[in-house]
Amino acid sequence: MRFSTVLFLAAATTLLPFTSAAPTGNGLQARDKGCDNDPKCWDEKPKCKDKCDDDKCDKCDDDKCDKCGDDCDDDHKGKCRVKGIDVTYETDHVDWKKYKFAYILATKGNDYYSPKYKDQSHDCRKSDLYCGAYHVAHPTKCTGDDQAKYFINHGGDWDKNKKKLPGALSIGCEDEPKDCFGLSASQLVDWIRDFSKTYHNKTHRYPVISTTAKWWKHCTGNSHEFKSKNPLWLVGDDNTPGEWNHWSFLEYESPKHDKPGKLKWYSDYDALKHFANN
Description:
Blueprint: H1 39-43, E1 59-60, E2 63-64, E3 71-72, E4 80-81, E5 83-87, E6 101-108, E7 112-113, H2 117-126, E8 130-136, H3 144-156, E9 168-170, H4 185-203, E10 208-211, H5 213-219, E11 232-235, E12 249-253, E13 261-265, H6 269-277
Parallel strand pairs: 5-6, 6-8, 8-9, 9-10, 10-11, 11-12
Antiparallel strand pairs: 1-2, 3-4, 5-13, 6-7, 12-13
Helix pairs in contact: 3-4
């Protein structure tokens, strides 16, 4: 997927499954004091001194430390917001151990299987990340049911025993909002419903939906149908569409040439583990 760098999101108030939360700056942060873009402000903050304690985030006085390669959020009481990556067939070299999870392009439509998916997935698991696959929707090629089956049969299944994240459906991220694949809002909602239903019937998990707010609002009529079952992977925007109360994954930097895109999970590592296993 190719996207523009995302704007930062506004903070939410609670830490519940799929609760929205504000992205933070790198390292120590005091977002409310305007430190996000002020290097001088960072220099005034206490420094992190100990090595990363795996998946936990320590405190430096009243501020949080980015010792694990994770972002820390005051609103979440010091818990680390976990970083991950979006890996495509153009991605060549990945320092997997810098991240805690990855979504890897597996399929498009009903006739494309990424030639790098197998090796990328192997490297991801070997590095002990939580790994998921995603499918790029081509709604005019065939039904959502057919594409869900193709995706599942080519790496998109879910297995909690292999640290595998539920599959994701990428729709609208490669399509201009004005085009909408040439389909009406009701036709697109029907297609997404068929894909989601088939994926759930086969894996017992609902797929994550990856989209942009602009495309979703324009092309699905801002459908609210999927907000309670399908986690949202939000790309390139600061407002969640479709009455989702939050994003679960945020793509804040798009893939560029051979480099992966940058993702954030809304909460800490324990919450990611729970999501992957349940």
